[in-house]
Amino acid sequence: MRMVFRWYGEGNDTVTLEQIKQIPGVEGIVWALHDKPAGEVWALEEIQKVKEQIGKHQFHIEVVESVNIHESIKLGSPERDTYIENYKKTIENLGAVGVKVICYNFMPVFDWTRTDLFKELEDGSTALFYEKAKVEGMDPMELVEKISQHSSLSLPGWEPERLKHLKSLFEAYRDVTEEQLWQNLGYFLQEVVPVAEKNGIVMAIHPDDPPWSIFGLPRIITNKENVKRVLKLVDSPSNGLTLCSGSLGANPANHIPEIIREINREFPGRIHFTHIRNVRIYDNGDFIETSHRTQDGSIDMCDVVKALHEDGFTGYTRPDHGRHIWNETCRPGYGLYDRALGIMYLWGVWDSLERERRKA
Ligand code: CS2
Ligand code: MN
């Protein structure tokens, strides 16, 4: 397991590379050109600049999250070919500086969605919270308004530029069924996977968060069967998975350790990247993000790590979101402290499993 940490870039993150350096066992930075609108080519010079910055701290830049997919590709509209060509060019440029994994998602319009970014937990910390009934009864415009009031920093997938066009996007998706979204994903992968292969890169799709349809928009990366279906779309190691325990795990029907074991059995070597975090699910379908500890949430985190360890997981792992603790002011979900605690929990479980394995 190779530990990495997501960082939003100089001037765009409250966490510094110096701080990340002091978290035990972190070897690389998960990065992106966050100002790039989806669909534009990432120029070599821009990429090299980030590589230099990060390299000064002896971190690698092997994992990118995300190169976002232009809506026309998800919609299957005629301009998609231009944007797919741009995507290929970005893959080539990323391959040229030593990037190995590109994490991306295929969610129409919205990336991860919550109703409260700072919901208080019993211990006084705050965390991202999803209230199911609220989303079901809500006009998406309202949610966008609410989220943008909360935070001066734009959230991944919630960039103001994109959301300005929300109405027309909704209209465009009105006739896109889940099956069509599958077709469009297949079309995209058939085009880009060979380019990724040539450039030493693996694509790693991130599950939908939450893993069900919201606001009537189709969502397809939602459960074990659908994850397998993606992997079958193109049979290549470069068509792989980001296994995000908190995204898939928000649906109690998704048993994360079982999913890991089954994917590893049926599609060995296709989990390239894992996002590990715990969520507590309530009977009414609401959920809140908790500490990484198994006892604090609904996901058996020890068994998640065990499932990865059993198979000698050599891919990249990052703690996904964390709570906001010790009065930290930070991007929602992306503070330093709780993610660092999460890493130590993951190492604790991993290292003891390693020790047992060596003894055996
Ligand atoms: C991330 C996602 O913060 C998160 O939950 O896991 O925003 C993720 O970066 C994208 O969905 C991947 O494309
Ligand atoms: Mn994730």
- On the 0 to 100 scale, the average pLDDT is 94
- Highest CATH level, the class: Alpha Beta
Which structural class should the secondary elements be placed in?
A: alpha/beta
Provide a count of the helices.
14
The share of residues in helices is 40-55%
Structural description of this entry:
- The structure is a single chain.
- The protein has 14 helices and 12 strands.
- By secondary structure, the chain is of the alpha/beta class.
- It has one domain: Divalent-metal-dependent TIM barrel enzymes (TIM Barrel, Alpha-Beta Barrel), CATH 3.20.20.
- A hairpin with a 5-residue loop joins β10 (279-281) and β11.
- α4 (80-96) packs parallel to α9 (178-198) and α13 packs across α14.
- The site of D-mannonic acid has 15 residues, from β4.
What descriptors fit this protein?
globular, TIM Barrel, 8-stranded parallel barrel, alpha/beta, binds manganese (II) ion, 360 residues
Lay out the secondary structure.
Blueprint (H helix, E strand, L loop, with lengths): L1 E5 L10 H5 L4 E6 L12 H12 L4 E6 L5 H5 L4 H17 L4 E5 L10 E5 L5 E5 L1 H5 L3 H11 L9 H4 L2 H8 L4 H21 L3 E5 L17 H10 L5 E6 H4 L7 H11 L4 E6 L2 E3 L5 E3 L11 H10 L5 E4 L17 H23 L1
Parallel strand pairs: 1-2, 1-12, 2-3, 3-4, 4-7, 7-8, 8-9, 9-12
Antiparallel strand pairs: 5-6, 6-11, 10-11
Helix pairs in contact: 4-9, 12-13, 13-14
Bound molecules: D-mannonic acid and manganese (II) ion (MN).
Family: Belongs to the mannonate dehydratase family.
Function: Catalyzes the dehydration of D-mannonate.
Protein name: Mannonate dehydratase
